[in-house]
């Protein structure tokens, strides 16, 4: 269907500047010549600038792990979209479940951050996903529906076109318990159908939906072979150049 696969590495709160540069240098070697898969990495804020310098001339894109919705001002501890644009960030991860779980992120604040990112021409990786409790109570689809509606509230077709959705079941993040390709496909299909109900103009067919949650070189191909899975948001395995590169090169496995 012509959706370019997109693999992104979410480094979370890992890597000093020196370690980050080491990892990027390794990735540049391992991923040389990759064209049929889009790649992005999201280092911690302290390493973003150094990594952006190291990425010059490379096809690997830079992503932030979050952003605030104001341009500047008295918001201690926050980073603005303008600051991220200045250092060549292309993507911003927004609404990651760890932000929702530990830092009070809600559908409303996720929506504000998404709007700010788009306003400043940053592309968005918009994260959604149910907890284990919600899945066991049969609420997966209703939770996903609420998160999609809340996060995208007020956005038009032109804006949504540039959003990548990352479906990350919370019970699969960092636990080693990956969703089976069938489980993931079922939810991805549901998300695409939801987008189809919300937006016309072929948006749902074009929008990329990544899977996230314990993705490894071993399980990536099975997931990526599913019709509605267009990429992966990788945590733990993105901290190692060889593992992450093998995930990016899933077609060669
Ligand atoms: P994981 O994290 O690959 O370590 O499970 C994924 C994520 O949280 O984006």
Report on the architecture of this protein:
Helices cover 42% and strands 16% of the residues. It is α/β, with parallel strands linked by helices and 253 residues long. It has a single domain (6-252), classed as TIM Barrel. Strands 1-2-3-4-5-6-7-8 form an 8-stranded parallel β-barrel, surrounded by 5 helices. It is globular and about 45 Å long. The relative contact order is 0.15. The structure holds 2-phosphoglycolic acid.
Helix-strand blueprint:
Blueprint: E1 6-10, H1 17-30, E2 38-42, H2 45-54, E3 61-64, H3 81-86, E4 89-94, H4 97-102, H5 107-119, E5 123-128, H6 132-136, H7 140-152, H8 157-160, E6 163-167, H9 181-198, H10 203-206, E7 208-212, H11 220-224, E8 231-234, H12 241-248
Parallel strand pairs: 1-2, 1-8, 2-3, 3-4, 4-5, 5-6, 6-7, 7-8
Helix pairs in contact: 1-2, 1-12, 5-7, 7-9
Bound molecules: 2-phosphoglycolic acid (PGA).
2-phosphoglycolic acid (PGA) binds next to strand 8.
Structure, briefly:
The protein starts with 5 loop residues before the first strand and ends in a 5-residue tail after the last helix. 42% of the residues lie in helices and 16% in strands. It has one domain (6-252): Aldolase class I (TIM Barrel, Alpha-Beta Barrel), CATH 3.20.20.
Descriptive labels:
TIM Barrel; 8-stranded parallel barrel; 42% helix; globular
Whole-number mean pLDDT: 97
Name the hetero compounds present.
2-phosphoglycolic acid
Name the CATH architecture. Answer: Alpha-Beta Barrel
The level-1 CATH class = Alpha Beta
Class by SSE composition: alpha/beta
């Amino acid at each position: 269907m012509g959706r370019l696969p997109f693999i992104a590495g979410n480094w979370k709160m890992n890597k000093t500047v020196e370690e980050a540069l080491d990892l990027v240098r390794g990735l540049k070697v391992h991923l040389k010549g990759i064209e049929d898969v889009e790649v992005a990495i999201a280092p911690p804020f302290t390493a973003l600038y150094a990594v952006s310098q190291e990425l010059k001339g490379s096809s690997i894109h830079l992503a932030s792990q979050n952003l605030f919705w104001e341009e500047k001002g008295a918001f201690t501890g926050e980073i603005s979209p303008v600051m991220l644009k200045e250092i060549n960030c292309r993507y911003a991860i927004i609404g990651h479940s760890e932000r929702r779980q530990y830092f009070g992120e809600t559908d409303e604040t996720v929506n504000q951050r998404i709007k700010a990112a788009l306003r400043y021409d940053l592309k968005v990786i918009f994260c959604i996903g149910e907890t284990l409790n919600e899945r066991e109570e049969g609420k997966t689809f209703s939770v996903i529906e609420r998160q999609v509606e809340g996060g995208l509230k007020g956005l038009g077709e032109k804006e949504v076109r540039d959003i990548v959705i990352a479906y990350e079941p919370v019970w699969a993040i960092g636990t080693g318990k990956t969703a089976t390709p069938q489980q993931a496909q079922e939810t991805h299909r549901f998300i695409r159908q939801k987008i189809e109900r919300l937006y016309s103009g072929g948006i749902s067919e074009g929008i990329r939906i990544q899977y996230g949650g314990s993705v490894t070189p071993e399980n990536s191909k099975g997931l990526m072979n599913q019709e509605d899975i267009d990429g992966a948001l990788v945590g733990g395995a993105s901290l190692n150049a060889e593992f992450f590169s093998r995930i990016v090169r899933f077609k060669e496995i």
